């Protein structure tokens, strides 16, 4: 196995090797021949979800009881690493595995009806779901959610707006954070809202710097009547459900970070050996060799630490602060390494559609999504006791 080795002490069997091989072959067969076309189109086809489900990739970390493959976070880490190593992009993974943020709350706290209607078909690739938390004026302030859901008999009447919603254009449903109670974190609930519900409007796709093949939308709710049965868990427990899943989301984004960094390093190293300037390969220049070593060092640090945090989370430890640090470490790595990879490629790396150019653009969102760098640093400071 090249590139990524097995998870430290946790996955050394042929099972993980087979999982990585399946993920890599899926990318080579189903993704890389079409990725630039999907970047230009602004979304990936629904058929890709079906193909990924047939390979057992969509539900790899979900329990078999809800239609998943019965794995855990470490299996997701292995799949992500292998797919990025084979040439997938961070944006592609965000679009294809959007169920990874839309479904965990339903799988953990949803009724059997919600599991059957949304979780199982999504993991089978038949439906697409998205998570709708961020609001136009809210950013990372989950406790400040203003979209209201007022109980009216057997329905909630939802009014408000969401923005920056990953897969919002293609999604058949959204798991939306709404305010059902008093101000603050204790008044937030999660509600599944289906596309096509009167009063639910999907805006035109949002044009972005990166993640071009991952469709992103703003959503509007005006007098949108949603059955009470679509409530996820108990009313006013949404904030706590969201907080529980943030650890996994931040670790996943950390893997995106060091994953695209590792891929960019591999591309830059290969190019440096092939590209000749002034009669010598770039790799013969000390400044280039040292640049590649520094890129390698940062990738290894981010990868080792993130895997360590992921393993602790699977073991049941509280790693909220460590997940923040892992994400920050991997974000810093992605921004530095992808920047340096473009520099090694020179003019060729600046051309639209080259792989290092794509990773360079995609890296920028990682320090914003899943909690901005500044928000997570402040959260870590409080959790680690560095405040008075």
What's the layout of helices and strands?
Layout: H1 14-31, H2 35-41, H3 46-54, H4 73-85, H5 90-96, H6 99-102, H7 104-109, H8 112-123, E1 129-132, E2 148-152, E3 155-166, E4 173-179, E5 188-194, E6 200-202, E7 216-227, E8 231-232, H9 238-274, E9 276-277, E10 280-281, H10 286-314, H11 320-345, H12 347-350, H13 355-363, H14 373-383
Parallel strand pairs: 1-4
Antiparallel strand pairs: 2-3, 3-7, 4-5, 5-8, 6-7, 9-10
Helix pairs in contact: 1-4, 4-9, 9-10, 9-11, 9-13, 10-11, 11-13, 11-14
Q: What this model shows, in words?
A:
Residues 131-223 form the Acyl-CoA oxidase/dehydrogenase middle domain. Keywords: FAD, Flavoprotein, Oxidoreductase. GO terms for molecular function: acyl-CoA dehydrogenase activity; flavin adenine dinucleotide binding. This is Acyl-CoA dehydrogenase. Its cofactor is FAD. The chain is α+β, with helices and mostly antiparallel strands. The chain folds into three domains: 14-97, Butyryl-Coa Dehydrogenase, subunit A, domain 1 (Orthogonal Bundle), CATH 1.10.540; 129-236, Butyryl-CoA Dehydrogenase, subunit A, domain 2 (Beta Barrel), CATH 2.40.110; 240-383, Butyryl-CoA Dehydrogenase, subunit A, domain 3. Helices cover 49% and strands 14% of the residues. It contains 14 helices and ten strands. The chain has helices at 14-31, 35-41, 46-54, 73-85, 90-96, 99-102, 104-109, 112-123, 238-274, 286-314, 320-345, 347-350, 355-363, 373-383; strands at residues 129-132, 148-152, 155-166, 173-179, 188-194, 200-202, 216-227, 231-232, 276-277, 280-281. It has a four-stranded mixed sheet with strand order 1-4-5-8. β4 and β5 form a beta hairpin. α1 packs across α4 and α9 (238-274) runs parallel beside α11. The longest helix is centred in the middle third of the chain and has 37 residues, at 238-274. It is globular.
């Amino acid at each position: 196995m090249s590139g990524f080795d097995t998870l430290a002490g946790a996955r050394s069997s042929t099972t993980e090797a087979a999982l990585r091989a399946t993920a890599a072959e899926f990318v080579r067969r189903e993704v890389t021949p079409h990725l630039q076309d999907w970047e230009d189109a602004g979304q990936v086809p629904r058929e890709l979800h079906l193909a990924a489900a047939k390979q057992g990739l969509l539900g790899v970390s979900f329990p078999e009881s809800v239609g998943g493959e019965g794995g855990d976070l470490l299996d997701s880490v292995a799949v992500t690493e292998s797919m990025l190593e084979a040439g997938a992009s961070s944006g592609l993974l965000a679009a294809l595995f959007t169920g990874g943020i839309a479904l965990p709350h339903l799988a953990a706290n949803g009724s059997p009806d919600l599991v059957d209607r949304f979780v199982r078909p999504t993991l089978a690739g038949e439906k697409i779901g998205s998570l709708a938390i961020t609001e136009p004026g809210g950013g990372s302030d989950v406790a400040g959610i203003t979209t209201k859901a007022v109980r009216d008999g057997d329905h909630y009447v939802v009014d408000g707006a969401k923005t920056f919603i990953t897969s919002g254009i293609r999604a058949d449903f959204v798991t939306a954070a709404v305010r059902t109670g008093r101000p603050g974190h204790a008044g937030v609930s999660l509600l599944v809202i289906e596309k096509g519900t009167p009063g639910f409007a999907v805006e035109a796709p949002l044009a972005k710097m990166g993640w071009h093949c991952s469709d992103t939308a703003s959503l509007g709710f005006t007098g949108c009547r949603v059955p009470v049965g679509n409530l996820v868990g108990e009313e006013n427990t949404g904030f706590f459900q969201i907080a529980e899943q943030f650890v996994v989301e931040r670790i996943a984004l950390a893997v995106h970070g060091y994953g695209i960094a590792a891929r960019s390093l591999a591309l830059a190293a290969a190019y440096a050996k092939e590209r000749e300037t002034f009669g010598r390969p770039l790799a013969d220049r000390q400044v280039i060799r040292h640049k590649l070593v520094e890129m390698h060092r940062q990738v290894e640090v981010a990868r080792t630490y993130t895997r360590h945090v992921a393993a602790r989370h699977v073991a049941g430890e509280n790693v909220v602060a460590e997940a923040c640090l892992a994400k920050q470490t991997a974000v810093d790595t992605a921004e530095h390494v992808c920047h340096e990879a473009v520099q090694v490629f020179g003019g060729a790396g600046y051309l639209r559609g080259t792989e290092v150019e794509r990773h360079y653009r995609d890296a920028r969102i990682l320090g914003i999504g899943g909690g901005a760098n500044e928000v997570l640093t402040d959260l870590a400071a409080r959790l680690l006791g560095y405040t008075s």
